[in-house]
Design brief:
Number of strands: 2
Distance between the termini: 21 Å
Shape: globular
Largest sheet: 2 strands, antiparallel
Structural class: mainly alpha
Helix content: over 70%
Radius of gyration: 18 Å
Number of domains: 1
């Protein structure tokens, strides 16, 4: 379970404003589209996000019912491959995004069953509730302009996410030798503090996802970016959910 973070934190830093500008540079002239073609909209990206969420929920039920290491690690690893493929070929997102959602559902369902069996069944409901609460709070923060996604803010969040990703990579490599980095998702105040920091960074990534939706429409990105950014939002939500599950498990163990 300690290895999951590396799979869910690696994609969103690839969704940068320059990517959108490159996608639109041959189709925009100021505020006017020079050539025909469908463009992404915020409402379209929201609809795609709902579709991906429904797909993941369906396969998560299967993963939870038939939880196994094969479904968990197969969904995690293949999901990572799918996200990386989409980051290099955003135009493939139309079919890669639903595939990712299905694969991630198997992972989420299986690992949720493991946590429920190891701690208490209610931990899943608590994690889902807290994840959605964080989502709506960050959406409110974004819409109200309480935190503005500036270039510096985006760079800071990306660097923090990259640092966490690097820690996960190191921990993953060391785990093959029976070594785990101290305090990473362990009990005690230090472990709780680290988990809270990671959850904070994951929450900040939600602001980047919301901004990607707006920037995609602003720059007139191709329609397939609706799937691309919807997948990015799902990546963040899964990462956030897993980290909240871990924090709850730490708190439960500390009782």
């Amino acid at each position: 379970m300690k290895r999951r973070g590396m799979f869910s934190s690696s994609s969103n830093p690839m969704f940068r404003e320059k990517t959108l500008q490159r996608a639109a540079q041959n189709t925009l002239d100021g505020d006017f589209i020079k050539v025909s073609g469908d463009r992404m909209t915020v409402s379209g990206a929201v609809n795609k996000s709902l579709i991906l969420g429904a797909i993941m929920l369906l396969t998560a039920v299967i993963g939870f019912t038939y939880a196994s290491p094969v479904l968990m690690w197969g969904g995690a690893i293949l999901g990572l491959v799918t996200v990386l493929a989409a980051s290099f070929k955003p135009e493939w997102s139309t079919f890669l995004a639903p595939l990712y959602a299905a694969l991630e559902g198997f992972f989420v369902g299986s690992i949720s069953m493991i946590y429920a069996a190891a701690f208490f069944p209610g931990i899943i409901f608590q994690a889902v509730t807290l994840t959605m609460a964080v989502f709506f709070v960050m959406l409110f923060v974004y819409k109200m302009g309480i935190i503005k996604v500036t270039g510096k803010f985006r760079s800071g969040v990306i660097m923090a996410t990259g640092a966490i990703f690097l820690v996960y990579i190191v921990n993953f490599a060391l785990s093959f030798f029976g070594i785990n980095l101290p305090f990473l998702h362990e009990g005690g105040m230090m472990g709780i503090g680290i988990s809270l920091v990671i959850i904070g960074v994951a929450s900040m990534n939600l602001l980047l996802d919301f901004d990607n939706f707006d920037k995609g429409e602003k720059f007139g990105a191709p329609a397939y970016y609706e799937w691309f950014f919807a997948m990015g939002l799902l990546v963040t939500l899964v990462w956030l959910y897993i980290e909240i599950l871990r924090l709850l498990s730490i708190l439960s163990s500390s009782d």
